[in-house]
# Entry
Amino acid sequence: MVRAGRFSGTADAPGDKSISHRALILASLATERCTVSHLAPGADVRSTAACLKSLGAQIEMDAASGAVVTGCGLTRLQSPGAPLDCGNSGTTIRLLSGVIAGSAVGGVLDGDESLRRRPMKRVLEPLRAMGAKAQGSRGKGGDETAPLQFEPGKPLAGRSHELAVASAQVKSALLLAGLWAGGRTTVREPHRSRDHSERMLKAFGAPVQVLEGGAVSIAGPTAALHAPAQLHVPGDASSAAFLVAAALMTPGGEVEVRGVNVNPTRIGFFKVLQRMGAILELTPEPDSAGEPVAAIKAREASALLSTELASAEIPSLIDEVPILSVLATQARGLTTIRGAAELRFKESDRIAQMARGLTAMGAEVEELDDGLRIRGPSRLHGARIDAASDHRIAMSFAVAGLIAEGETFIHGAEWADISFPGFFQLLSRLSGGAVSVSGEQRRPGRA
# Structure
């Protein structure tokens, strides 16, 4: 890809990945037939669907990002006859850990090489505290990793959990396990994480409560979940972030992304952009799946200002830190991102990958244990970037390439399909052809 002379147009945000996982899981645990539309189109959500089918749900996926789900209920899950393949999806393996442990059907959860490196003790330990018989493989530093083995057992007991790190995935796994557990399951976090599970559990009739201070509680065992006949997934804010960032940094840039989920726990990125001087317009649209929705219009920012991000802000923009790091290279002053150590345990070590790649492109970057310091503005130049099997790294450096002098090559660009199939084609359309997907970009290391 080469430097873009423009970036303008309109686009629809793909379905929200976080909500898509939860919609399929809860619909599979209900007994009614539910038609789910506008699912996230990437491979992660299909991994969740395949696992749920192995547990007894009937799921008919269609080519238009929709699915018809006939659930098996909370009491008729079946033990899978083979390990459940979660692919590259951390959300799949962590949320289904709560389902497998809570239902006590037993089974093995596994995934690809990248997923097998991700830490799982953080979800296994609280499940074991509820009575689950669960064990992972030995990982780095005494952690546990996939494959995860769950033995059939007795019903779990509800208990109160104090999470050391805010995590929507761990919180959701514990709430899902709490559907079957006897008594009350309560989860407290140091900072509020995204609340899609709480919203959707309520929509399916689960006895979930949000307590004072942001703690979440569910009373179990739950008799049944009831699915709506129709459920439309709103657009993904994390995917929209890449298009908004490209418009802000490109001369004359202007883009409108429609149908974006603007849940308060998901828009930290856009709030930070406004603090940095970005010009954003949010036009409300009809709610979807219990979530607020808006069209977001962004225009080139003549002078972005640096900012400081503290740990309390990170849960609301954890997935957007890589693309925010790219924006920081064009902001005047020193941008500091702290409290983001969780990024070292995603599909890749995102802190190290962003520091390495941005430095290669000419940015002034300091890698911290839990974040980054970036001084701007910098004149970026093209470089060869390794996406490290990480969709957000691939997409972040694609946007960086639009403002860099010379050519940028991304090895592993195909990983963008995990969450945003067609991303590079859309980027090419909006940038007037500045992006091309070559064989080298599609097949890193095979040229």
Q: What stands out?
A: The mean pLDDT is 94.
